[in-house]
Specification:
alpha/beta, Rossmann fold, 2 domains, three-stranded antiparallel sheet, 9 helices, 26% strand, disordered N terminus, binds adenosine-5'-triphosphate, binds magnesium ion
């Protein structure tokens, strides 16, 4: 019963999650609950461990100790759970000599997407790249490439979207576009976004929950009620004063 209740309210839970690289502790006993339907921001200084935590959740690193659970529709199976998760990491991983369409088509085959052509054309339209459908990716601007990576991340209509600094280096209009996209993505309440970013003013406008990581530890967890009271920057700076 307890297990079922936990499954309903949180999409991700970590318990005592730690990661050590060459004897250096990078994540130290992380206990986090990420509510289903939230836009959950993961913030903290450079080197705090945000990307490491994300890579563990994506199965790219093994935790040194501790556990984590992801409660999505296919959570009974380690392979199938990938169908429920979309992600954007630092390295875009696009094929520069393939077109926008071909880059998405490769992944559509991996995910065995039905109506591949329709879905890809819909996503190119959504991210404003229809005009660049057949252009090779190496001619696209950075903002266009980031939008293409986002289109790839949501190709299989994932329940959980994990974004690691999706808007770094982008112009203001594109940052606003990403912000609006994220808000719309969770609108129906059945999808969740975990986002790591240094853009506190952008996050503040959309996030419902936030965890601050400092030196591999959780230095604070806040929800939308706390965020109504205090700015994200103040919460961030105050968490540093306790170091
Ligand atoms: N594969 C690795 N091998 C060794 N050390 C690593 C590895 N990946 C990360 N680290 C170290 O772990 C620490 C945390 O790095 P991480 O990239 O998780 O930080 P971050 O919070 O994402 O920082 P940023 O805001 O700069 O992206 C850093 O000291 C980094 O050097
Ligand atoms: Mg990082």
């Amino acid at each position: 019963m307890l297990e079922k209740q936990r499954c309903l309210s949180n999409i991700i839970e970590t318990r005592g999650l730690s990661k050590t690289f060459n004897g250096r502790i990078v994540l130290d006993n992380i206990d986090l609950n990420i509510p289903r339907g939230s836009i959950f921001a993961l913030i903290g200084p450079n080197g705090a461990g945000k990307t490491t935590l994300i890579r563990i959740l994506l199965g790219l690193y093994k935790p040194t100790t501790g556990t984590f659970s992801i409660y999505t529709h296919n959570n009974d199976d380690n392979y199938n759970i990938r169908k429920d998760i979309g992600f954007m990491l630092h390295s875009p991983g696009l094929y520069p000599v393939l077109s926008s369409y071909e880059n998405l088509a490769l992944y559509a085959r991996i995910y065995k997407i039905d109506n591949e052509r329709e879905r890809i054309e819909h996503l190119l339209e959504l991210v404003g790249l229809t005009e660049y459908r057949d252009e090779k990716v190496h001619i696209l601007s950075k903002g266009m490439r980031q939008k293409l990576v986002l289109a790839r991340a949501i190709l299989h209509d994932p329940e959980l979207l994990i974004l690691d600094e999706p808007t770094v280096g982008l112009e203001v209009e594109t940052k606003i576009w990403f912000r609006e996209f994220i808000s719309n993505f969770v609108m129906n309440g059945d999808k969740t976004v975990l986002i790591s970013s240094h853009e506190l003013s952008e996050l503040e406008k959309i996030c419902t929950d936030v965890a601050i990581l400092r030196k591999g530890k959780v230095a604070g967890v806040y929800n939308k009620f706390d965020l109504n009271e205090t700015s994200l920057e103040d919460l961030y700076l105050k968490s540093g004063e306790r170091d």
